[in-house]
């Protein structure tokens, strides 16, 4: 937004995000960590999120399940039962006590699941009957990796029920005290399975044309906006990321089409979504290489700039940001906010470290999804705490 491209705007300068006042632009990216035993966020999550909260900072939760058919990882938290809502209140209260704002990311994995995660051992639901290819592996509850099974394409008449699950989950999140919600429309999960023409092979009103592929998403956004108000709703997309086979033949246009529709919703609502969160094409999820990348790094940068210019609201970028790249993105007006993922896993005080240009702890990939409530989760040292034991964390 033009008003933010003023001289002196930096990653560490305040930002007015709708009705929220941020004191800096370093955001905790949503990250699945598999520590919410049996779907209930407990003390480990309270500690993890509190550690990463700063006065005037923005924290986004890990993908949080909207319904019992939504999971595709072990021990992911939900926001569809009263017990889950009650448990989240402790996390939210602790984060608020540190002065941070917290958004809940609403998630349905669609076909990125397995019968073991589904009620009654049913097939996962999706836009399609096609399975994710064997190039990708699913993390099973016992820690091994399996192949993705064939999903069941939702019947046209079933889709509005899933839309309803999103709006109910959003209401639940507000009841738990969250400041807002982020709809997860990225990375090959359910919403992306409708958006991308490399997956969506439907012949009804939800497949084929751009209008039809965007229909499910737009219904979700409209429903959630009606439920909790436009200023509490954010959206995440990754048109150029082919994680879990979510490829599109024209990612630039797909991103622009979604943005155009969100701009229209904002116009009708008379207010903006809290932010649009976009994953950089360069992000290679989980260290796996992207195939079919749309172009060179320069072309990818141009794609992000085009989306940024088209979107009439707060623009957040994520994926591969170092301190320097984050500073540059904000200073040059390419992003209002930058979300950090892996560096925030290993540096609970990342904001302070980036401000001071202090050394960073390296992350340990093998504990990203392990279920230990402490190791690789809340035991990364704060600045000044490093000792011999913690130095071992430097191995990657
Ligand atoms: C362990 C892990 C779990 C993640 N889980 C989610 C998730 O639940 N929802 C989501 O939108 N992105 C998820 N991501 C992507 C991150 O939000 C972020 O965009 C990504 O890590 C790139 O940022 P980075 O280069 O700063 O790590 C995950 C990433 C990692 C490493």
TrEMBL record:
Keywords: Flavoprotein, FMN, NADP, Oxidoreductase
GO biological process per UniProt: jasmonic acid biosynthetic process; oxylipin biosynthetic process
NADH:flavin oxidoreductase/NADH oxidase N-terminal domain: residues covered: 10-361
Cofactor: FMN
Any GO CC annotation of this UniProt entry: peroxisome
InterPro entries: Aldolase_TIM (IPR013785), OxRdtase_FMN_N (IPR001155), Oye-like (IPR045247)
GO MF annotation list: 12-oxophytodienoate reductase activity; FMN binding
Sequence similarity: Belongs to the NADH:flavin oxidoreductase/NADH oxidase family.
Name of the protein described by the UniProt record: NADH:flavin oxidoreductase/NADH oxidase N-terminal domain-containing protein
Biological source species: Salix viminalis
